[in-house]
Design a protein that fits this description.
The chain is of the alpha+beta class and 108 residues long. It contains two helices and six strands. A four-stranded mixed beta sheet has the order 1-4-3-2, with helices on one face. It has a two-stranded antiparallel sheet with strand order 5-6. Strand 5 and strand 6 form a beta hairpin. Helix 1 runs antiparallel to helix 2. It is globular. The protein starts with a strand and ends with a strand.
Length: 108
């Protein structure tokens, strides 16, 4: 459905380090970066500037190949300063076999 998603961040280097850590655990490596922009396939970060504030109130779900990847994603995020919004676990209220973990972006 989506071609790409770009979010604006207040500190690109801080956000880039955090997202690189968690996306790396999912097997997703950066595909492009310059002084203001970094992307991992169809997901990217752009430094907020010129009156364009950091994105807020957005929920993004990344696909994980396994429960072990979800666990590694969450642990990498916590180790890189991301806030805890839900430890890894089953979420049957979403669907019967849903297993996920939730983190807060550095701009939370």
């Amino acid at each position: 459905m989506f071609d790409h998603v770009t979010i604006r961040v207040s500190d690109r280097l801080t956000s880039e380090a955090a997202y690189a850590a968690v996306l790396g655990e999912l097997g997703v490596e950066s595909t492009y970066a310059d002084d203001w922009f970094v992307e991992w396939e169809e997901f990217s970060l752009l430094e907020a500037s010129n009156g364009r504030r950091a994105t807020s109130g957005l929920h993004i779900g990344f696909v994980a190949p396994s429960r072990a990847h979800v666990d590694a994603f969450w642990h990498a995020g916590r180790a890189n300063g991301l806030g805890d919004a839900g430890a890894p676990g089953e979420r049957p209220d979403y669907k019967a076999d849903y297993y996920g973990a939730f983190l807060l972006d550095p701009d939370r």
